[in-house]
Protein: DUF2975 domain-containing protein
Organism: Raoultibacter massiliensis
Amino acid sequence: MINQDVIDTEASLNRVKRISGGIRVFLLVLAGLLAILLAVKVWVAFLELPDGNIAQDGMSILLMAVTDAIIIACVLIGSDVFATLKKGVDPFSRRQSRIIRVAACLLLVDLVLSAFGASAFPWFAQYSEMTVGMTPSYGESTLINVNAGDLIVAGILFGLSVVFDYARYLQELSDETL
């Protein structure tokens, strides 16, 4: 019976390693494609600069580049989490929890920068995202757009990091008992 448990555990671990490796590769390819897309967006934005306030246009392009770079960093963080799982390292480590928390904080920074960009630079507003806005009572356009998707994902990631911390704590207690 014990031998079968060991065999099942090894098979499960190998399956986790294989799936984690595939997800890691997917996330790395996605980060590369997003980086290429960011470079194209910045290049096109500089080519299409309107005749106006260059400082404001430059700030809008910088803000767009920073918010897109934050998303790329979050994808790379996800890739790192799966790389660690592929190596067979304990997923409930302090490092994993911290990395997940950093991704959540980056998403909150992206949320604030996007809200600032949408209110300071009206053409900066990100479309095709799940946004929640505040509209004045006299019916003009939205004053402040908040990307609810970033907020929800950041909340989920913060929750995951707390669960990972708790799992690490329980694992330490279990190890001390044995």
